[in-house]
C-alpha cells in the first residue's frame, strides 16, 4: 500500500475503536503513531503506542484482527502474529524492531501512564479494502 496517515485503530475482537495521531500531537485518549517510520500498510514496520492500558489486550491471540483506517479512505487489515507481555525494564530487541519487506504493525499497549511494561502486539498486513 502507498503511504497514508493513519486515522483510527480498531480491535474488532475487543470492540475497541480509537483515534490515532502522530506521536508529537497525540493526546491522552489517542493512539500515538511514530510518523518518522512507515505508515500502517506500507512495507516495513509501523509503530503505534497506546497512551494508557487498554482492557483485555493480553487476551489477543495469533489470528486476531487489527484494523487501521487511513487518510486515503482505505483500511489496512492486520492479522496478529504474536502477543507478548513485556516487563518494565525490557526494551524491544532487534528481532522486534527489524526492518521488514512485508507490511507489519507493532502495537505497544502500555501497562500504566508511564508506559512501564505492557503488551507488545506484532501483526502483519492481510488486506486493504476501501473504507465504507
UniProtKB/TrEMBL annotation:
**One GO molecular function term?**
hydrolase activity
Q: Which organism is it from?
A: Streptomyces haneummycinicus
Q: Which UniProt keywords apply?
A: Hydrolase
Q: Which domain of life is it from?
A: Bacteria
Q: What is this protein called?
A: Uncharacterized protein
Tell me one Pfam family matched here.
Sortase
